[in-house]
Specification:
The chain is an alpha/beta fold. The strands form nine sheets. The chain has a seven-stranded mixed β-sheet with strand order 5-4-17-16-18-19-20, sandwiched between helices. Strands 7-6-8-11-12 form a five-stranded parallel β-sheet, with helices on both faces. The protein has a four-stranded antiparallel β-sheet with strand order 21-22-24-25. The radius of gyration is 24 Å and the shape is globular. The relative contact order is 0.11. The structure holds adenosine-5'-monophosphate-propyl ester. Adenosine-5'-monophosphate-propyl ester is lined by residues 269, 315-316, 391-394, 416-421, 442, 505-507, 519, 522, 528, 533.
Length: 655
């Protein structure tokens, strides 16, 4: 609640400039209200109209929404389309020579690809995949660096109706193996390695390790994109080089027409249990919402240069790199490297060089760049910018103000976009030519998105009070199910406790008196570290899988740059370590978590105890652990603790 109250004291309001409003696709509050009213009065008519206007259908749909099997909604089900056709073929006649992607590599080298070239490369690769025997409905795991090839791989899967599952290149061999097994992947597309900050990070060796862990027998092919040229093991005939896959393949490929409900992709994300959830998205609804939000939230225009800094391994990279900008025929920047290499001016330099007009990044990146050079943006010409965006976590008002003043030169609206892997695209966000922004608030829901804040019983809370963020009606780009686990889908997102009617986002939120939404953070055991979702249970399971560990509990604590930091409380099987021994074990365990999940999940701090504080029924007292992690005075009742002296042990952090 303290958090809610502190952000609600924010009373600065920034209306969009008249000039911006005049040119905006959705211009002025009346236009927004008209759309919102249309959705309220004729929900299906509204979405049906938009789907007909924005998507190229191979076969039109006859029914907009089928709600008969709640909460497994179907949208535009008997309509047929192809996502790749909607992203590429539609531009072949109108703008074949327009640059689709400006790719900047870690070392600064730039490659540009036009719509026509991208189309041909996607077709060739799609033909190559077909030759390998990959068919409609097959799952293909993609484990690639940021590269044009990553977009080609995703688009080629979509073209032949195969379902891609992209795994972020920073995830470990174990994560790759778990996802291969869970998705039942028949092929893996990977690279020899990737470049970050001038250093090479291997990728293919992690795939080899994943195979060695077992359970990957369904994988018949591994396609290898040569990025670094470092020697790797090539297990012929299973492993084939990308260049050999496309050699001699025709550069046109008839798309596979699929139902609007055909899964386009599975993307794994953390939940409140140890096992990541395979979020399954559809084709029609997902493509529709990607297009709409490019036009509504980003106000995309033919002359824009759009840059989303996310990795294609996250949903943001899916929607706002691989699908949305292409479906809208935009020119987009794609970046392999990191914002701090060769120096903290990299983003600003790239905006200047590529004349970026719409820039979309994460609060954690903004905060770290402020720290490394609050005045740095002033050294660059950022006058091409006209719109800024953020995503992934709440942005603190001061970081927002810096973004507004120093990067946007007080000219550019900021769209703080609230959404999730499960929602597919933006849900609550200012429309830049409509909504006056308040630093730290994602403002108002998009037209047709029935967002609300409710209490434990599902009843609306008064404005000004906090509660659970829910979406009361389905929307086209929503998660369809958790791959292979429909029960978990239902229990996670439509829990009986809330009446089972509304989509439960898992975030706490508050609505202020103007109806603006303020996201407070997760209400479940999910952390948001640098905009990445990490399940505390996932890290706990990784820790207890180490032979040294008897028990572990993981909580988050506020962190200046990352938003949240991971704190692990660990009980070892042997004696509690002290001094250098503690440091050594902590290092071993941090590296272990890095191997089990990926470096982003490594605990910032490990605290060793002889035991963990538990309730009488044996539940770990997480709230107490959170207070200890924050260094707060302990106010909870600890009288029932068997051995209160462990609290002193747990106050000692080993970094
Ligand atoms: O807690 C919210 C936070 O990120 C979560 C979703 O994470 P993920 O599925 O990884 O997707 C991130 C990219 C869409 C949400 O439940 N979140 C995302 N955007 C915002 C946010 N919190 C506050 N403000 C936002 N704009």
């Amino acid at each position: 609640m303290a958090n809610i109250e502190s952000v609600l004291q924010e009373n600065r309001v920034f209306p969009p400039s008249e000039e911006f409003v005049k040119k905006a696709t959705i211009s002025g509050m009346a236009a927004y209200e008209a759309l919102a009213k249309e959705a309220e009065q004729d929900f299906e008519g509204f979405w049906g109209r938009l789907a007909r206007e924005h998507i190229l259908w191979h076969k039109p749909f006859s029914q907009v929404l089928n709600e008969s099997n709640h909460p497994f909604y179907k949208w535009f089900e008997d309509g047929q389309l192809n996502a790749s056709y909607n992203c590429l073929d539609r531009h072949l006649k109108t703008q074949p020579k327009k640059v689709a992607i400006i790719f900047e590599a870690d070392d600064g080298s730039v490659t540009k690809i036009t719509y026509e070239q991208l189309y041909h490369r996607v077709c060739q690769f799609a033909n190559g995949l077909k030759k390998l025997g990959i068919k409609k409905g097959d799952r293909v795991l993609i484990y690639l660096p940021m590269a044009i090839e990553a977009v080609i791989a995703m688009q080629a899967c979509a073209r032949i109706g195969a379902i891609h599952s992209v795994v972020f290149g920073g995830f470990s061999a174990k994560s790759v193996q778990e996802r291969i097994v869970d998705a039942g992947a028949v092929a893996v597309i990977t690279a020899d390695g990737q470049m970050r900050s001038g250093k090479e990070i291997p990728l293919k060796p992690a795939v080899d390790e994943a195979f060695a862990m077992g359970g990957c027998d369904a994988v018949k092919h591994v396609v290898l994109y040569k990025r670094t040229g470092s020697p790797i093991h090539v297990h012929a005939p299973r492993d084939v080089w990308w260049d050999d896959v496309v050699r001699d393949e025709p550069d046109v490929c008839e798309p596979e027409w699929v139902s609007a409900e055909h899964p386009l992709f599975i993307l794994y994300t953390s939940g409140s249990t140890g096992k990541p959830k395979g979020v399954q998205h559809s084709t029609g609804g997902y493509v529709l919402h990607s297009i709409l939000t490019m036009k509504w939230t980003f106000d995309i225009k033919p002359t824009d240069v759009f840059w989303c800094t996310a990795d294609v391994g996250w949903v943001t990279g899916h929607t706002y790199i691989s699908y949305g900008p292409l479906a809208c025929g935009a020119t987009e920047v794609m970046f392999e490297g990191v914002p701090t290499y060769p120096d903290a001016g990299r983003f600003w330099h790239m905006i200047q060089e590529h004349k970026v007009s719409i820039f979309y990044t994460a609060p954690t990146a903004i905060r770290s760049l402020i720290k490394l050079g609050a005045d740095l943006p002033k050294k660059y010409n950022l006058s091409s910018l006209r719109l800024l965006g953020t995503v992934g976590e709440p942005i603190n008002p001061e970081a927002w103000m810096w973004y507004h003043r120093v990067v946007g030169n007080e000219r550019c609206p900021i769209v703080d976009t609230w959404w999730q892997t499960e929602t597919g695209a933006h849900m609550i966000t200012p429309l830049p030519g409509v909504v006056p922004t308040k630093p730290g608030s994602c403002t108002l829901p998009l037209p047709g998105i029935m967002a609300a804040v409710v209490d434990e019983t599902g009843g609306d809370v008064e404005k000004g009070k906090g509660g659970f963020l829910v979406i009361k009606r389905p929307w086209p780009s929503m998660i369809r199910t958790i791959w292979g686990d429909p029960e978990r889908f239902k229990n996670s997102y439509y829990p009986a406790e809330l009446g089972g009617k509304y989509y439960l986002a898992g975030d706490g939120a508050n609505r202020d008196l103007d109806g603006y939404f303020w996201i407070v953070g997760r209400i479940d055991d999910v952390l948001n570290v640098s905009g990445h979702r990490l399940g505390t249970m996932e890290i706990e399971s990784a820790l207890v899988a180490n032979p040294l560990v008897a028990e572990a509990a993981v909580v988050g604590k506020p962190h200046d740059i990352k938003g949240e930091a991971v704190v692990a409380f660990v009980v070892l099987k042997g004696a509690r370590p002290a001094g250098d021994a503690a440091k050594e074990v902590a290092k071993t365990l941090r590296d272990w978590v890095g191997q089990e999940i990926g470096p982003i999940a490594k605990p910032d701090e490990i605290r060793f105890g002889e035991n963990l504080p538990k309730t009488r029924s044996g539940k770990i007292m997480r709230r107490l652990l959170r207070s200890i992690a924050k260094g707060e005075e302990i106010k909870q009742d600890v009288s029932t603790l068997e051995n209160p002296h462990i609290l002193d042990q747990l106050k000692e952090a080993v970094k």
